[in-house]
Amino acid sequence: MAYIFNDTQMAEFKRLVARYPEGKQKSALLPVLHLAQESFDGWLPTEALDYVASLLQIEPIEVYEVATFYSMYNLKPVGKYVFEVCQTGPCMISGSDSIIDYIKQVLSIQPGETTKDGLFTLKLVECLGACGYAPMMQVGKIYKEHLTKEKVDAIIAEFRQAANKN
Amino acid sequence: MGVKLLLEKANVPGIRSFEVYRREGGYRSVEKALKEMNPESIVEEVKKSGLRGRGGAGFPTGMKWSFIAKPEGVPRHLVCNADESEPGTFKDRYLMEFLPHLLIEGLIVSSFALGSSDTYIYIRGEYAWIPDILEEAINEAKAAGFLGKNILGTGFDCNIHVQRGGGAYICGEETALIESLEGKRGNPRIKPPFPAIQGLWMRPTVVNNVETLAAIVPIINMGGDEYAKIGVGRSTGTKLISACGNINKPGVYEIDMTISVEEFIYSDEYCGGIKGGKKLKACIPGGSSVPILPANLLLKTAKGETRYMNYESLSDGGFATGSMLGSGGFIVLDEDQCIVKNTLTLARFYRHESCGQCSPCREGTGWMEKILHKIEHGKGSMSDIDLLWDIQRKIEGNTICPLGDAAAWPVAAAIRHFRDEFEWHINNPELSQTSNFGLQNYADPIHVPA
Ligand SMILES: Cc1cc2nc3c(=O)[nH]c(=O)nc-3n(C[C@H](O)[C@H](O)[C@H](O)COP(=O)(O)O)c2cc1C
Ligand code: SF4
Ligand code: FES
To answer: Which residue has the CA at smallest separation from atom 4 of ligand 1?
Structure first.
């Protein structure tokens, strides 16, 4: 795959950089990394990081140190749908353990692993600001809240169907 | 029903749109501030209101604003802290999702008061759908002449930009947030210099929480003195509380700070009591960093007085017998919850979120997690409890930023108030894997309202 933005992505890149004063384009790094991750299969190989560095006219190391610091940038390939289940206190006391166990069981994967068909990755994460709607998980840009086993089944079925359509 | 200053209109259909928001009286504070007031008189009004920062530390907002340096020819910036990552806290999300124009309105007035023509909202990356909501509101406000160039013909220019973070609790700390906004790792800076002197791009900067900035709107509309009449003592105005855990009605509530903790937990207007009719065991009243309190000390102070939902009352007794209002993340634990396990998840959280700059925090948070893991899994020894106590004490106060303290306090409070439960785990390694240390084991009577 070529790690180059298409025209739409490039237009978005320009919009992001325009928010900052002249010479402060590095400030756009975090949003640009999000854009790159969304544009390039959900993860950021070194080529993608180098491309971002060249676009922002900064050293590659300035991009690497940022990409490794923040939890949302995937530096390894992930499944098409990443289930990021919250395991922090408020979710734990509201039953997140049993949801995590259930996902492990139905997808036959451990946290950090991806299903063989490449569709689902399970990741355990810390508080996502949805403590009152626990148990919960993030999938891409959206939150799935008030999880039950039935709801997990329905979510998996929905994504399987969506993936089959493409 | 208590006074509602922020969420009053949250249920008006279509309130997310400029049209409805404006029809309901929105953006009046911008007209008043920009046309009838000047930056100094706005800061005065905010001082009079007694408003204290809603991000957790409770620092008086008007005073903070008056510290901003004004060197000739150097731009100044207002930054809105929407990083909201303290476990138990989800109030800013609610405000931004349901009342985006309230935040934008507060930001325009505040930007005018501080002289910020480029204001940034730094929002945690995981709230990935909210930037679109905010940008829509910004565009609508701009189209109506409340943002952009020469606002309302006053000559004041202002743009608001939304930036997503990359997933890091530490970026809620204001200097880490500034670093992150500059496109760097979120390593907190050593203060001084304070952001008010050298902040974003080394320019004078004020960082305020979402709720703080939204509260500027009612303060300007009603006047600082009127705002200060709501609440009690130095806890003026209203506060958003995000309630979660084992209660019947988790959610975001606006309270005036005169209600008691008992009323907040048990009345149907708020949490609606403990889920399943169970008993209250403990509560972390102000976000995961503040000390956990057992039920008896939560509902009444050590002196036996009623405890209220405000800054002073929640901290009555200091850390020995009190806690803090903090960010307003109110976490309720019922009789079946295990304090050791809960503390372990919080220790893991802080280990995960430590930026790694200071050894006591980087190493200490990892050690605490390991020891708690041992105790929770039936492999602990009595000396581990003392070791834990020792480690947390050595972190507290010995780090660059307050994340070290935030990691130490929950562990300290859990041992202080629930030592029996730690000992029980150690003495009953097998039993503790299948059952919990019941409420009946606590010597203190746990007060349960009829
Ligand atoms: C580790 C850490 C995390 C913090 N997280 C947040 C946060 O998510 N949101 C917030 O408004 N303030 C947070 N703060 C407090 C900020 O540093 C700062 O005090 C606050 O944004 C000031 O705004 P206020 O005066 O309006 O409360 C955090 C502080 C620390 C030490
Ligand atoms: S206390 Fe922890 S989070 Fe704060 S600067 Fe030091 S290492 Fe980083
Ligand atoms: S603890 Fe899970 S969302 Fe906050």
So the answer is: B172
Amino acid at B187: N
The complex's ipTM?
0.97
Contact A93 B245 (CB under 8 A): yes
Using a CB-CB distance cutoff of 8 angstroms, which residues of chain B are in contact with residue A65? 184-185
Cis status of the peptide bond prior to B402, with omega within 30 of 0: no
- Give the whole-angstrom CA distance, residue B251 versus residue B242: 6
Spell out the per-residue pLDDT of chain A, length 166, in tens. 789 999 999 999 999 999 999 999 999 999 999 999 999 999 999 999 999 999 999 999 999 999 999 999 999 999 999 999 999 999 999 999 999 999 999 999 999 999 999 999 999 999 999 999 999 999 999 999 999 999 999 999 999 999 998 7
- Report the C-alpha gap between B144 and B348 in whole angstroms: 47
Q: Measuring CA to CA, how many Å separate A100 from each of A124, A144, A148, B88?
A: 8, 14, 11, 20
Asked if B246 and A142 come within 8 Å (Cβ–Cβ), the reply is no
Residue B166 φ/ψ, nearest 5 degrees? -115, 10
Residue A129: list chain B partners with CB under 8 A.
Answer: 84-85, 89-90, 93, 124, 126-127
Global pTM value = 0.97
